[in-house]
Design brief:
Number of domains: 2
Distance between the termini: 50 Å
CATH class of the largest domain: Alpha Beta
CATH superfamily of the largest domain: Dihydrodipicolinate Reductase, domain 2
Strand content: 25-35%
Mean pLDDT: 94
Helix content: 25-40%
Low-confidence stretches: 361-371
Structural class: alpha/beta
CATH topology of the largest domain: Dihydrodipicolinate Reductase, domain 2
Bound molecules: nicotinamide-adenine-dinucleotide
Amino acid sequence: MTNEQVIRVGIIGCGAGIFHLEGYSEDPRVKIVALAGLDTDRCERLGRQFDVPRIYREYQELLADNDIDAVSVVVPNSLHYPVAKAAFEAGKHVLVEKPLAGTVGDGEAMVAAAKEHGKLLGIAFQRRWRHDVQIVRDQVAAGSLGDVYYAKAYWMRRQGIPGWGSWFTNKAAAGGGPLIDLGVHVLDMALYMLGNPKIATVSASTYDRIGSQGKGNWPGTAGARTGGSSAYEVEDLATAFLRLENGGTLLLEAAWAAYTEMTDEFGVQLYGSNGGAKIHSKDYADVGTLQMFSDVAGAATDSVPRLQSRNGHAQICANFVDSILNGTPLSPDGEEGLDRVRIIDAVYRSAELGREIVLDEAFAPEKTVAD
Ligand SMILES: NC(=O)c1ccc[n+]([C@@H]2O[C@H](COP(=O)([O-])OP(=O)(O)OC[C@H]3O[C@@H](n4cnc5c(N)ncnc54)[C@H](O)[C@@H]3O)[C@@H](O)[C@H]2O)c1
């Protein structure tokens, strides 16, 4: 570290990279010293806005900067692994955007590279730091809901393909569609609140009925992103039924485009033997989003906790910095990111095979029921 109390950070990627700029900017222990991105105009604009002294184009140039302790990796999914690996080799800690990686192999190699180089690997599942999620997680851990035996997690958009024909809709660049983009967030929320139960089996289907017609683009995203194949190669809706080893079940849905009353809405609902909880967020709301269900003197009782709004990326960045400076455990860490990638991979495999997939206790290698 170049200075005992200040972590010098570089951010690679100038799209969602802005969330990291905003997040670190709230932390007096951080100095953002460099940005990198191929879209020079956008990066220079951000650099001026956040007073970042050095702007690079290629990520390798930023990683060669010895004045950097840690990097945020905010590039297309298939680049997470090569960029993170190069960052570890350059002696930097890494905070990577979700999903951890586009494939299980890349994710495993990232976790191994972090260990090999003795560096931290954090991942930006910022929604687990929402106040509603934290409350439900604490209630589940305290046993207030009893045995939670059923959960539903979903993220549904009416017209929300994030750039038709960009890297997002290119299978090799993204690793998949709304499941790996949005579903992975609510999967993490659900598993985090449930205390990270193991998944036993996955049965899933995916569809591309709307994107494949050239419909469903998120208004305003046309031309905003590049790096794709000008084709639609991924699903626009995924649905999965997961059996947990503890006997519980989880229903997961994710769509970028679907004919539904929802515009851009996600949530998780938990059903327990003594209580329930429902988080539903419309258009990214983080207050007024939680209902808890219980009994009071035998009467069915619904309660609505008063929530505080929180900047999720600021929480993620602060946890990452705490971990570098003080050894505070990362939440989430790379292993959890890898766990989610393995589940996503099993969902895609089940959809492709048209049958249930059995995951062993260690999540890998997955086996089909016929094995
Ligand atoms: N946590 C969240 O809520 C959230 C939200 C949006 C995106 N994301 C994630 O962030 C990542 C990036 O998504 P995005 O929406 O910002 O995409 P984007 O296409 O808008 O931006 C990608 C950035 O990566 C840069 N890049 C690509 N190749 C590079 C290279 N060789 N060297 C340097 N820079 C390079 C591009 O120039 C661009 O600045 C994805 O993994 C996505 O899943 C997360």
